[in-house]
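Handout, page 2. Input:
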Amino acid sequence: MHQFSVGEVVTWIPDVLLRFETHGDYRVVAAMPDRDGDHVYRIKSPLEEYERDVKEGVLVKSKGDLPEEVLKQRPRSRAAITLPKLIGVSV
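Output:
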C-alpha cells in the first residue's frame, strides 16, 4: 500500500549523489508501478518545469502547502558586464 496519495504535498530528500538537485516540497502527481520492490511516485515542484520519479523512501510528509503555480519570474536582463583592467600586465 502506498504511503502517499495523489495531490498530497511531500518533501523530497535526495540521497548524497543528488545533493545539488532542487530538494524541498513537491506535489504527488501520480503513483507509479513499483520498481525494485519500492513504491515509486511522480512528483512535481512549481519551481521546476519537469516531473521526477522518486522512490517512497526519499519522501516524507510535508507540513507546508504548495501554490498551484508560481508567479512567473522576470526574465534576467542581459546587462553588459564591465571587467576591471589590470594595470602593469603585459600580454
